[in-house]
Design goal:
The structure holds 2 protein chains of 2 kinds. Helix content of chain A is 75%, strand content 0%. By secondary structure, chain A is mainly α. Chain B is an all-alpha fold. The chains are: A mainly alpha, B mainly alpha. Chains A and B meet through helix 1, helix 2 and helix 3 of A and helix 1, helix 2, helix 3, helix 4 and helix 5 of B.
Chain lengths: 103, 183
């Protein structure tokens, strides 16, 4: 069986990649995609700890991941609706161009 | 076992990194789908077969296609070739992320005492058990999820429908109601 550290290391790397995407890219859809990558890394952590804990029959990690997936689905739906509304209003998805609140 | 895990992790990391740094949005979404498939494979390796199926159904089937449609609804997929894709403060973002990885996450992993082998060697796969857990201990969370999904659905429609179009819909609805009441 794989050591638990390997899975946690993979999950940490995926989370960092997602964080890099959120902090460095400026296209709104790419930012949404990066948030999805971070959520997947978190789900991987839940499942890894569930598999290695002494009582996996309670399925606690599975439950957490299921609800996290449902929330991720809702988040993507609303996020894409906002993206489409923003695109219709400003004709751009550049997050640097959306600075009406600053002016 | 370890070799399969390493192959799957390399696939996942490749998918994630190319999803972040590809210029063309369609290709970025495709490499995101690659990441989802690799994560589903790791779920299978960890004996969470129900989660793997849910991952493929929801992430590949729903979220991937939804993001593809979102890309399709907006123009300018790849952008002008001279246009930069990184935001203005990208260097600080990169530094913060790398500090997060090497300053918080990896030291946290290195200094924790984790069991390297699972406490229970084999798990009998059981969807029935998951159903019982959902209907027994986690029922309030299930209800709240249903409410959340309904709210997200309605909110997405309200936000995405154009304003003049929705007001037109509302006006015709009011007119119809007025006609009905006058009759």
């Amino acid at each position: 069986m794989i050591p638990l550290e390997y899975i946690l290391l993979l999950s940490a790397m995926l989370f960092t990649v997602g964080l890099v995407g959120v902090l460095t890219r400026k296209h709104a859809i790419i930012v949404l995609i990066s948030v999805e990558i971070m959520l997947n890394a978190a789900n991987l952590n839940f499942i890894a700890f569930w598999r290695y804990n002494p009582s996996p029959d309670l399925h606690m990690g599975t439950m957490f991941s299921l609800f996290a997936i449902a929330v991720a689905g809702a988040e993507v739906t609303v996020g894409l609706a906002l993206v489409i509304a923003i695109y219709r209003h400003y004709q751009t998805l550049d997050t640097e161009a959306l600075n009406r609140l600053k002016e | 076992m370890t070799i399969i895990f390493i192959i799957l992790s390399i696939t996942a990391l490749t998918g994630a990194i190319s999803a972040i740094f590809l210029k063309n949005l369609i290709y970025a979404v495709y490499s995101l789908l690659l990441l989802f498939v690799a994560i589903a494979g790791i779920f299978l390796m960890l004996m969470a077969e129900f989660l793997a199926v849910v991952q493929i159904l929801v992430y590949l089937g729903a979220i991937g296609i939804l993001v593809l449609f979102g890309v399709m609804m907006t123009r300018n997929i790849s952008g002008a070739s001279s246009e930069r894709i990184l935001s203005r403060g990208w260097f600080f973002g990169l530094v913060i992320s790398v500090l997060m990885l090497f300053g918080v996450l990896i030291p946290g992993l290195a200094f924790s005492e984790l069991s390297s082998s699972p406490a229970v060697e084999t798990i009998t796969p059981s969807v029935k058990e998951i159903g019982i857990q959902l209907m027994h201990l986690n029922t309030p969370a299930l209800w709240l999820t249903a409410v959340l999904l309904t709210a997200a659905l309605i909110g997405a429609v309200v936000v995405a429908v154009p304003r003049n179009y929705s007001s037109k819909l509302f006006l015709t609805y009011k007119l119809e109601n007025k006609n009905k009441s006058s009759k």
